[in-house]
Specification:
This protein is 63% helix and 3% strand. It has 25 helices and five strands. Strand 1, helix 20 and strand 2 form a beta-alpha-beta unit.
């Protein structure tokens, strides 16, 4: 019989070789050339330096690219009206330019109005400051200030004493008196200022606005070209992403562009609505310049975490300066305290339908990074720019690290996460991971889709010899505690159980087949030990057998776990099978010829003649034909390649014959039994 090669690449050990425990081996990391290792660092540093020193150019380009996502739906809608691309793009850009110019004009008028009214608020501010000084807070502040002044005065006195000990200080020279004996009088010097010319006055007026106007001009020029050359830019992105699979790349790029466009349009509309509601609220409260604060609040909502706080501070300060009392400031605070959580926690999830795709850590890091790189403008653009990078990472293979670092999707799958935690031997983390998944999945589905697949990973690592004896012991302990903790849990989805549902609906997280009701089971199968779940000799086989026992017990079948040592050649004579109706031999690994399984099954048949033996091999292998031949050579009555198949076979064999015959009469086309003929006959 041909030998099978495990995943690790080493030939499987043949039966009869000395059972030497695997030595803990150290897997050497692949050596990376220095040039290849330094290249990503150099490229990253070069890109960051270019973004920093070229921010005068890159900031307008970034704003233009983000605006292109917002205007693309409008351009497409105009194109559907049979307008040429140039006209559609021109109308969209001119409309955007008009909105920006109107907002800039409103901000300028409102800011000038506010600056002119500031002197009127001086008396109110001074009155409130005096009132604060007479309050307990003011007394406490004055007490702390007096302590500081006392410490400062003590330091000065000590300095004077040190100066007196060192000697008198040198006195500055005095001017010599004139012949009359009187001191000379100071001469008054007047500087005559030249009135500025027309060019200087024009330069003074235009200099502050030249830079913003230049930035706006660059933004709209780039925006115009991006909208005009949208398809060409998309083709170039496809070429950069990889042209080997044009269909998949095109679909991915188009999907990413549509998602980004929808996200930015919804975010802009939501922030604008937030600003309008804030402006109306401030107008009703009586805060001056509500239009200015409405625009400011809408812009600040682009800033993660701190935007809402910053947008509330200035209106609250102005309300405190206008109102002689504190009612107006309290009303403004209540407005923002109610409106911001309502928008962020209720409206946004409904409108977006999903999150931004960023983890909270990524939002914070991106805000710090882009603020350091581009200042306040970078803070406003931090979240949109990072969303673009994460979307690229999800669709471009070479940029996948961006999605791993900044995306909100788990870095590890549930199977990998479970395996990592049992490998560390942390029982509490293993149970917490299980509780989290079991909120949406049934217990048997969790065992089948997560635990057993993680045990397959462990079996593969054990076959490669990378697991130490300590790690194996920690995994066995963690698995035993997990199975014991989940023994009392119902085998149904937690949400369905809370709603009174059966939890047996079809789906990925639905439980394994529940089988007939307890009354539909034969009486012999409901007794304790009716099904013997015997583990193989692998270090994880006993845990797998315990899982099968627990699932069968939750379906009303009496099951018992039997370790490999209890059915060994030395102890098989003292083994008491009881009222066993079926024997299930469970193994997660099959290395070479299944000699030990063949001997185990032969001993069981000699000890329990007439009791069918079901062999469960739950490890996916590469060579299916070799495995099928190996399974047939064991002498088992039937084989099952998964936990689900074993449960279905046992339930079919345990069904009461009267119930089975009645169902066969009602549905002649239904299969009589899920087991092969030998097992059905034995049952």
């Amino acid at each position: 019989m041909a030998t099978r090669t495990p995943v690790g690449g080493e030939p499987a050990a043949r039966q009869g070789a000395p059972l030497i425990p695997p030595r803990p081996t150290r897997v050497a990391a692949a050596e990376t050339p220095r040039a290849a290792m330094a290249s990503p660092v150099v490229v990253g540093a070069t890109i960051i330096a270019a973004l920093y020193f070229g921010r005068e150019i890159f900031i307008p380009i970034a704003i233009a690219l983000l605006l292109s996502f917002v205007l693309t739906p409008l351009v497409n809608r105009l194109r559907r009206l049979r307008l040429p691309r140039l006209v559609a793009v021109g109308v969209s850009v001119l409309l955007t330019l008009g909105v920006v110019a109107s907002m800039a004009t409103l901000i300028g008028i409102q800011a000038a109005d506010l600056a002119g009214d500031v002197p009127r608020y001086r008396s109110t501010i001074e009155h409130k400051i005096n009132g604060l000084r007479d309050s307990p807070v003011g007394h406490a502040t004055e007490y702390v200030a007096n302590i500081g002044r006392a410490l400062h005065t003590g330091g000065k006195e000590a300095g004077k004493e040190v100066g007196a000990a060192e000697g008198p200080a040198a006195t500055p020279p005095q001017p010599a008196p004139d012949q009359t004996g009187s001191q000379p009088k100071p001469v008054v010097v007047e500087v005559a200022s030249t009135p500025p010319g027309s060019l200087e006055m024009l330069s003074t007026v235009l200099t502050p606005v030249m830079h913003p106007l230049a930035t706006v001009g660059i933004v709209f020029v780039v925006l115009l070209f991006v909208l005009m050359q949208r398809e060409d830019l998309r083709d170039r992105m496809i070429r950069l992403a990889g042209s080997s699979d044009l269909h998949r790349t095109t679909v991915a790029i188009d999907d990413a562009a549509k998602r980004l466009s929808r996200y930015f349009v919804v975010q802009l509309a939501l922030n604008a609505a937030f600003g309008i509601v804030v402006g109306i609220g401030l107008y009703v409260i009586g805060v001056p310049n509500p239009v200015l604060w409405a625009i400011f609040s809408a812009l600040m909502r682009f800033v993660p975490y701190l935007g809402a706080v910053l947008s509330a501070i200035l209106p609250m300060a102005l309300a405190a300066a206008v109102d002689p009392g504190w009612n107006m400031m309290i009303a403004v605070a209540i407005l923002f305290v109610i409106l911001e959580p309502l928008t962020g926690q209720v409206v946004e999830p409904i409108v977006y339908g999903q999150s931004t795709g960023l983890s909270p850590f990524a939002v914070l890091v991106s805000a710090l990074f882009w603020t350091w790189l581009w200042g306040p403008v970078g803070l406003l653009l931090s979240t949109p720019l990072t969303v673009c990078l994460v979307v690229l990472g999800r669709h471009v293979e070479h940029l996948e690290f961006l999605d791993v670092l900044f995306g909100d999707r788990p870095a590890l799958t549930p199977v990998q996460n479970f395996y990592q935690r049992i490998l560390a031997g942390d029982s509490e983390e293993v149970l917490g991971h299980a509780e989290l998944i079991l909120q949406q999945c049934a217990l048997s589905s969790y065992y089948d889709e997560v635990v057993l697949k993680a045990l397959e990973l462990a079996a593969r690592d054990a076959a490669r010899g990378v697991l130490t004896a300590r790690q194996k012991a920690a995994m066995r302990t963690a698995l035993g505690e997990l199975i014991a903790d989940l023994a009392d849990r119902s085998d149904m989805v937690a949400e369905a159980a809370g709603q009174g549902g059966s939890g047996s609906g079809e789906g990925t997280c639905s439980p394994l087949p529940m089988g007939p009701a307890p009354d539909g089971l034969a009486a012999a199968w409901r007794r304790q030990g009716a099904v013997l779940c015997i583990s193989g000799r692998g270090f994880l086989d006993e845990a797998a057998a315990a899982i099968l026992t627990q699932i069968l017990e939750k379906r009303g079948i009496g099951a018992r776990t039997v370790s490999f040592s209890e059915a060994s050649a030395a102890r098989i004579g003292r083994f008491e099978p009881g009222a066993a109706q079926m024997t299930c031999v469970i193994s997660l690994a099959l290395d070479g010829e299944p000699t030990h399984l063949r001997r185990l099954i032969r001993r069981l048949k000699e000890r329990m003649p007439g009791v069918p033996v079901l062999l469960g091999l739950w490890l996916v292998r590469d060579d299916d034909r070799a495995v099928a031949a190996a399974e047939r050579s064991t002498g088992a009555d039937a084989q099952a390649g998964s936990l689900r198949a074993v449960v279905e076979a046992v339930l079919a064999a345990a069904q009461d014959p009267d119930t089975r015959d009645a169902r066969a009469v009602q549905d002649p086309k239904s299969r009589e039994d899920a087991l092969p003929a030998p097992v059905a006959a034995g049952a």
